[in-house]
Automatic annotation (TrEMBL):
Name by which UniProt lists this protein: TIGR04222 domain-containing membrane protein
UniProt cross-references to InterPro entries, sorted A to Z: Ser/Gly_Cys_C_dom
Stretches that traverse the bilayer: 6-27, 157-182, 188-208, 215-233
Keyword Signal: no
Record keywords, A-Z: Membrane, Transmembrane, Transmembrane helix
Length: 339
């Protein structure tokens, strides 16, 4: 039975790997047939268009939050929550004219806090986001959805099978834990405390590792560690050894997924060129706009990690507004939200 599971899973891995490679080659061919040079310059795009180009819809919500924070109309309350300051200055001239910023501003209240991810999703799903998307498509910076439909469908199916195999491995790791801790010959109903401990400790460890290492890879890493630890303990080590080998194969498949581009985005070669130009543009004298532009190009995740983009002459000059946005991004990501 163990051999049959190993062979079946291995064939599934090979099929998924083939799909990843084929879809990557097809994606590269589609991009070669698309626009190669942008018709506009990076300075012709506003921060929200740059955000969509660099990071998609969610990035636009992050830019809107950063604008509200820099204008003094939003503060972080900790644990990923955002609210209106108690004594916010109600000056319309300090509020951006962008519809995304005004949409989020209308939702904020000093009497209650809202989750940052909820506000980001609100901006991402707003009608103006669709207008930005269509403008980038008309400029040749994004591919039309019908050109990527087949490639995206095949890759999504392969990724779904990949994640399903990882989830099965995590569940099997829980079974290995029970097998290792239950003494040989004991009845299952004779050790309720052991079951309770395992059912609490293992899912918690999986959850924490998933948060730290990024979702399923972290959970699979925990399952692999459990399988490795159980090999010298269980009376028949063949099953945990097979599980460990399959989880190692899953990790190699995850590496292949990343090497072949991960989730293939709609940006064209012209979009890549314009984005590179945007990263190379020197900032102006307005430090607030520089901070907003950096948020559009990098996103909250990169800002939380302290990354700074490089200019032609070296690192971007430090400014108080950018440091403040980095702190705000960290506060927005300290709860359940990890943007």
């Amino acid at each position: 039975m163990v051999a049959g599971i190993v062979w079946t899973t291995t064939l599934g891995y090979l099929a998924v790997a083939a799909c990843y490679i084929v879809t990557r080659l097809a994606y590269a061919r589609i991009r070669r047939r698309g626009p190669q040079r942008p018709p506009v310059g990076a300075e012709d795009l506003d921060p929200f268009e740059l955000a969509m180009l660099a990071g998609g819809r969610q990035r636009m919500g992050e830019v809107a939050l950063a604008e509200l924070y820099l204008s003094g109309r939003a503060v972080a309350r900790g644990h990923g929550l955002v609210a209106r300051p108690q004594h916010a200055e109600q000056r319309p001239d300090r509020l951006s004219s962008a519809p995304f910023t005004r949409l989020l501003d209308a939702r904020l209240d000093s009497s209650r806090s809202l989750a940052a991810d909820q506000l980001v999703r609100l901006a991402a799903r707003a009608d103006p986001a669709t207008a930005v998307l269509w403008r980038l498509r008309r400029l040749g910076l994004f591919l039309a959805p019908d050109r990527l439909a087949r490639v995206a469908l095949l890759r999504s199916a392969a990724w779904g099978l990949h994640m399903l195999a990882g989830a099965a491995g995590v569940l099997a790791g829980g079974g290995v834990v029970l097998w290792a801790v239950i003494p040989e010959g004991e009845r299952f109903d004779a050790v309720p405390l052991v079951f309770a401990g395992v059912l609490i400790a293992y899912p918690t460890l999986v959850y924490v590792s998933g948060r730290l290492l990024g979702g399923m890879p972290g959970a699979v890493a925990v399952s692999g560690a459990v399988a490795a630890a159980a090999i010298p303990v269980v009376p028949a080590p063949r099953a945990p050894s097979a599980l460990l080998a399959l989880l190692a194969g899953w990790s190699l498949l995850q590496c292949l997924y990343r090497l072949t581009g991960g989730k293939l985005g709609p940006r064209t070669a012209a979009g890549d060129t314009l984005l590179a130009e945007a990263h190379a543009l020197p900032e102006g004298d307005d430090s607030t706009q520089a901070a907003v532009r950096s948020t559009a190009l990098l996103g909250f995740r990169a800002l939380r990690r302290g990354r700074r983009r490089r200019l032609r002459g070296g690192r971007m000059p430090e400014c108080g507004e950018l440091a403040a946005v980095c702190s705000f991004a960290s506060a927005c990501g300290s709860g359940a939200y990890h943007c």
